[in-house]
Amino acid sequence: MSRRAIKSINWATLAERIPESEKNAFSAFKSKSDQYLRRMTANPESAPKIDWGYYKKTVATPSLIDKFQKEYEALSIPYPADKYTAQIDSQEKEALVKMEQFMKEADKKIAESQSEIERVKNLLPFSEMTMEDFKDMYPEHAIDRENPTFWPHTEETQPAAIEKMAAAESKSSH
Question: What whole-number distance in Å separates Cα of residue 169 and Cα of residue 17?
């Protein structure tokens, strides 16, 4: 595995999508990311080459240098395995499916709302409506001549409801 890093991130595009309340956290994240990238690029990708011949000539025990050379060349520091890219890709696919589903539901709601707007636009204006027109359009809200109600026209203020409450109170007091 080799050392890889994203060479360029379009921070301006990301910044456009960040809500105002998250700007400080985004700036801190960008700063930390830049710091990590600088630290990573400051180090060489491979270990520096050593002139072993020079040390063999200058050090009194060349066998010690041979041992160091053998160990140095055998040294292998593995780059950490990428365990997260596949997981992130699967989460991205799940998010895309959820996003598509949300968009379909939103489009459906938008279509329903548009049809309701058209229906309301095509209604007879209330200023031109008669009581009969209102009763035909909204029978659940219109005054029923067969069963009139008293103001404020709520169920609990009607005579039948008041009588029920009085009867319930008289039963509980006995």
Answer: 61
C-alpha distances (whole Å) from 106 to each of 48, 93, 95, 133 are 58, 20, 16, 34
Report the C-alpha gap between 123 and 146 in whole angstroms: 26
**In the chain, what is the greatest distance between 2 CA atoms, to the nearest angstrom?**
120
Q: pLDDT by residue for the chain (174 residues), tens digit each?
A: 445 556 678 888 888 999 999 999 999 999 998 898 888 888 887 778 888 889 888 888 888 889 998 998 888 878 788 888 899 999 999 999 999 999 999 999 999 999 999 998 998 888 898 888 888 888 888 877 787 888 888 888 888 888 888 888 888 776
Q: Is 102 helix (H, G, I), strand (E, B) or coil?
A: helix
DSSP character string of 53-88: HHHHHHSS-HHHHHHHHHHHHH---PPPP--SHHHH
Please choose, from the candidates 26, 31, 6, 32, the residue with its C-alpha nearest in 3D space to the C-alpha of residue 14.
26
Residue 38, Cβ density class (10 Å: 0-12 exposed, 13-18 middle, ≥19 buried): exposed
Contact 47, 76 (CB under 8 A): no
